[in-house]
Amino acid sequence: MDVRSVNVGRPRPNPWKGTGVTGIDKRPVTGPVAVTAPGPKGTGAVGLAGDRVYDVEHHGGTDQAVYAYAREDLDGWERELGRELRDGMFGENLTTLGVDVNGALIGERWRVGGPGGAVLEVSCPRVPCGTFQGWLNEGGRLRTFTRAALPGAYLRVAEPGRIRAGDPVEIAHRPDHEVTVALVFRAVTLEPGLLPSLLAADALPEEIRTAARSRTRSH
Fold first, then answer.
1. N or C: which end of the chain has fewer CB within 10 A?
2. Are the C-beta atoms of 195 and 216 separated by less than 8 Å?
3. Which pLDDT value is given to residue 25?
4. DSSP 144-204
5. pTM for the complete prediction?
6. Neighbours of 110 (CB within 10 A)
């Protein structure tokens, strides 16, 4: 398991959302990149040096510090869409190889790199939005992406460090529950009946735990 590429965004106009600018255009970079905890949502800060988000209400902050997507899933979408998808095309900071990103458990910790590397903690899935659909130029495909339940994972920065392409990824900790990234995604999109089962994962962002508790009380 390793990091195939580390991708940092470049600002570009966002005609698909009212923010004016988007950082979804992530491109592979060479050399090590510093990874630190960005602090609370609302400033645009994310985990990777040189990157940021512009829709500060919905993106960035502690629970969305780093976004990872599997190269294997990008390959599957290449076949589905009939087009090439370069590393970083889904807006991911880390394009991984051999990592079961969607099967990762909430609260699972990844040690990325050797000495001086970072430890990242799986937080929640990315839910595709209008910017994602517009950036890919795949109008009408948002439901297709949602039904596939291959969202990729947002990660917190548990221990800061420096990461680069080629770094190994080691599962340093797996919590004692069965709440995966894919399960959370299904629960918050098309299958809300699954929400109560998410409460087994203490490391879920509070807004998702609140929705799960609300669903539990109403049933």
1. C
2. yes
3. 93
4. HHHHHT---EEEEEEE-EEE-TT-BEEEEE--SS--BHHHHHHHHTT-GGGGGGGGG-TTS
5. 0.95
6. 28
